[in-house]
Design goal:
Length: 410
């Protein structure tokens, strides 16, 4: 199997080689999840303001809030295959006290209400909620990637099987332990790749860009400059389209405020010009950079194996008592975050699998995980990248997360 599609504004070739026998072997060991066949869904964006709706939806989160006049209302978030749906319910005739026990006990509801629009954003003003009693297929009521997951799986493992040792063992061991969750996981709750399969797609996106920078173009600095020039062109097009549509705020500019940041990171990268991009280390770090999201987020269909892997002697009863629903922040994971969890999973794999690796290489891998957000105000665990690999993983993560929001097909 040879793939010759292209990525990132058709600039980056998706070029990997895998025989049919190898693909079958990969999918037997790392099967893709089953998706619903011919599933239809309600899309709030297709509805007009004032429309009455009655839909079966999956509850993500809810909380009681106060209006500016100190009146209570319920703020809720639901999901279906089309994506996240924001909703609210006013406290009319004791509605909050009446519905809170149902929200605490159930995950699937028949939602009746009216479509509302505020600042260009559509939501539902809920009049009635009816709890539904059924098991949840996570792909039936959650948004999921429309990409071919078996093909993404084969592509991922084709890249991992190219790695030299011990990096290949570090990468494959993570998938052997966490594949059932990794293949399902979203990469975010709201900003980018916020759907089932999003983490898999995002991870592969970083690998595609890294392969282009490190193995396809002759010079990694020239490659990054080419990519920035592509972004500049896309940004100009966005600005012009925004001008033509005047005050349309429903489509914010994806590439706003990105150009200066990319050039700043490029200057930091150039200061590391004595280094050579450590390709195998980078691909391994990319696999782990967001793997901590298996603990940071929760959703229907997610196991708690990563928690049990990290903390085998702990009492896990609080996990087994969970009510899982839509994509939400995990109540435990949010206290730590995916960046520290990624570091913990990496070091635990190396220790558990008894993989020998120079201590400097371990620190380089950890540094890539800790700095991939680039800046402390964006969640980076270090002040700034300190190595070539640190700058590279931030740049490719930054590019892929924003490029995702330019694509029509998830």
């Amino acid at each position: 199997m040879t793939n010759s599609n292209r990525y990132f504004f058709d600039i980056i070739p998706i070029d990997y080689h895998c025989s049919e026998e190898q693909a079958i072997e990969i999918l037997e060991k790392f099967p893709a999840p089953e998706l619903p066949d011919g599933n239809t869904y309600f899309d709030l964006q297709d509805q007009q303001e004032g429309n009455s709706i009655k839909q079966r939806l999956l509850l993500n989160e809810y909380e009681v809030r106060l209006t500016r006049t100190n009146k209570q209302f319920l703020k809720m978030s639901f999901s279906n295959n089309a994506g996240m749906i924001q909703a609210k319910m006013w406290d009319n005739q004791g509605a909050i006290d009446r519905y809170l026990p149902l929200l605490e006990a159930h995950t699937i509801f028949e939602v009746e209400g009216v479509v509302d629009v505020f600042n260009g954003n559509k939501s539902i003003t809920v009049n009635r909620l009816t709890a539904q009693h059924e098991d949840v297929n996570p792909f039936a009521l959650l948004p999921y990637t429309k990409m071919d997951i078996p093909n993404l799986t084969v592509e991922l493992f084709s890249y991992l099987h190219e790695l030299s040792e011990p990096y290949q063992s570090i990468a494959i061991a993570a998938m052997e332990h966490f594949w059932n969750d990794f293949r399902l996981a979203p990469a975010a709750k709201g900003y980018h790749h916020n759907y089932l399969g999003g983490l898999l797609k995002h991870t592969i996106g970083l690998m595609r860009i890294t392969r282009y920078i490190c193995t396809i173009e002759k010079d990694h600095v020239e490659a990054i400059i080419k990519l920035i020039q592509v972004v500049e062109k896309a940004y100009k097009k966005e600005i012009y389209q925004s001008y033509k549509t005047e005050n349309d705020q429903s489509n914010p500019l994806v590439w706003r405020d990105t150009i200066d940041h990319l050039y700043k990171m490029l200057q930091g990268l150039i200061a590391c010009k004595e280094e050579t991009p450590p390709y195998d280390l980078l691909i391994t770090a990319i696999l782990y950079h967001d793997i901590g999201k298996l603990l940071e987020y929760d959703h229907a269909g997610l196991s708690f194996h990563p928690f049990k892997f990290l903390f085998p002697t702990a009492d896990h009863k609080i996990l087994s008592d969970r009510k899982q629903a839509g994509i939400a922040m995990d109540s435990l994971g949010v206290m730590v975050g995916h960046i520290p969890y990624g570091m913990l999973l990496l070091t635990k794999i190396i220790e558990t699998e008894k993989i020998e690796l120079p201590v400097a290489a371990i620190h380089e891998l950890i540094h890539c995980i800790l700095c991939h957000h680039g800046l402390p105000e964006w969640g980076s665990a270090v002040r700034a990248p300190q190595t070539l690999s640190g700058y590279l993983i931030h740049i490719v993560d930054y590019l892929d997360s924003r490029f995702e929001n330019t694509e029509l097909v998830k």
